């Protein structure tokens, strides 16, 4: 019996022993505090630790303290959404172009350029925020602190994430599809547009979701490059308000941020499913490429 138990325990290819248990414990540890915070955002009273009924008071009901009517809270949510939208619209196309260029580059200095492009991943965010602040104050003084500086900071910090995701997809695809498109008569741009980009759609969608989440969640860069309360984001507002005597409106603000992030991720996933269904599981427009083939 003891020998059989030792053999079962030592077999690395056997059925996982405690995987389900550890997974459930991790999910409970991660999700339950979030659900508790969301619950108190619907509290009727001011307590953030004792249930006092259910109400939308802290979302829209309270004429002064709710997220809808408190200008500090509503402007923080608006600023976070604005910065996230700018970061996605600028970072994703720039990151895709950079990933394609670095992946296809075979000349001298390519390895060093690829390594330097990932420097932001190993740089502490507080160092990044401090460096950007000094640059905007002493070097690029024409860039005003606030929305402009924060947007540039978010783009700079999140660009490496797009680069990693898209490059991983590019390396798994290989250059064969582009070469096949060129053999069918496509130009270099047509090969990228009709063969490569459709295959990169999953990576592009994932990059957009990651950039949006990072921008919405960013605290250090947003705080360092803020020009005052009018440009505070949700994390900055939660931090500054949470040290005083916050009301459940703070929970409501955090819950709205979480809901918006999940909604955007869901919409992006559905759009990807639609694109995949239209173009087929492979994702490339092979029929359009075939039409380019000379007679």
What does this structure look like?
73% of the residues lie in helices and 0% in strands. The protein has two domains: 17-55, no CATH class; 70-291, MetI-like (MetI-like fold, Orthogonal Bundle), CATH 1.10.3720.10. The chain is globular, with a radius of gyration of 24 Å. Helix 2 (19-41) packs across helix 14 (248-279). It has helices at 2-10, 19-41, 57-61, 71-104, 110-117, 119-122, 125-139, 147-173, 176-183, 188-199, 201-217, 220-224, 234-242, 248-279, 286-291. The termini are far apart.
What topology does this entry show?
Blueprint: H1 2-10, H2 19-41, H3 57-61, H4 71-104, H5 110-117, H6 119-122, H7 125-139, H8 147-173, H9 176-183, H10 188-199, H11 201-217, H12 220-224, H13 234-242, H14 248-279, H15 286-291
Helix pairs in contact: 2-14, 4-8, 4-11, 8-11, 9-10, 11-14, 13-14
Features:
73% helix, 0% strand, MetI-like fold, 15 helices, 295 residues, mainly alpha, 2 domains
